[in-house]
Design brief:
Blueprint (H helix, E strand, L loop, with lengths): L4 H20 L6 H22 L12 H30 L1
Helix pairs in contact: 1-2, 1-3, 2-3
């Protein structure tokens, strides 16, 4: 379970990041469910990518405050970023 904690934090913070990005950019919002799904995917992907690059602490299963903050930041940024990309693709396909 210890090695799953960073991933769970990234997924939850990704959902929060997707909804925060959707709230800040009303014209790009996918709705609460869409923002959450894109955020969860982005949070997981973003956290794993940054973990592979060694940019987040605690990815080896050891959780300290730096690891938790790294997971939250990676998940939130990844979630908000993927939500924005999905929204742009959706708008481009609608034209």
């Amino acid at each position: 379970m210890g090695s799953m904690l960073p991933l769970i934090i990234q997924l939850l913070s990704g959902a929060a990041g997707g909804n925060l990005a959707g709230g800040l950019m009303k014209n790009m919002s996918l709705g609460t469910l869409g923002n959450s799904i894109a955020g969860i995917l982005g949070g997981g992907l973003g956290g794993q990518l940054l973990g592979m690059l060694g940019m987040t602490a605690g990815m080896d299963g050891g959780m300290d405050i730096a690891g938790i903050l790294g997971s939250v930041a990676a998940g939130g940024v990844g979630g908000g970023g993927l939500m924005a990309v999905v929204s742009m693709v959706k708008k481009a396909m609608g034209k």
